[in-house]
Amino acid sequence: QVQLVDSGGGLVQAGGSLRLSCAASGRTFSRYGMGWFRQAPGKEREFVVVISWRGDRTYYADSVKGRFTIDRDNAKNTVYLQMNSLKPEDTAVYYCAARLWELGSLRPSDYDYWGQGTQVTVSS
User: How does pLDDT run across 34-43, given as a tens digit for each residue?
Assistant: First the structure.
């Protein structure tokens, strides 16, 4: 059993930065591929980025490539999402997710556990 707690969201102007955190409980965090997803009002949850359980492989959505960076600290049971050059279209609730597999997946249905979400709002 893994519990995920998302934090770090907030209100920021376009061009600004935020760093999201996802803290996981449990001793087996290093066995989980992780992902970040986001969901804007009236839209489906969409993939943002995934990372392997060792942190050596990542895969980004084209919409965030070059602006967002994911990393993880298995000693702290935490995965991070650094978001730079934020745009109004990045406004959404951001969720982290854990999958008992080497690498995260682009499909939300492949994940075993989800955080509660953290709101990111980017003003123009």
Answer: 999 999 999 9
Quote the CA–CA distance of 91 and 121 in Å, as a whole number. 5
Average pLDDT over residues 24-35: 90
Q: Phi and psi for 28 in degrees, rounded to 5? A: -110, 25
Q: Closest Cα to residue 113, out of 17, 15, 28, 8?
A: 28
Phi/psi for 77 (5° steps) reads 55, 45
Torsions phi, psi for 40 (to 5 deg): -90, 160
* Region at 74 (left for phi over 0; alpha for psi -120 to 50; beta for the rest): alpha
CA distance 7 to 14: 20
Q: In what order do the strands lie in the sheet with 78-83?
A: 4-7, 18-24, 78-83, 68-73
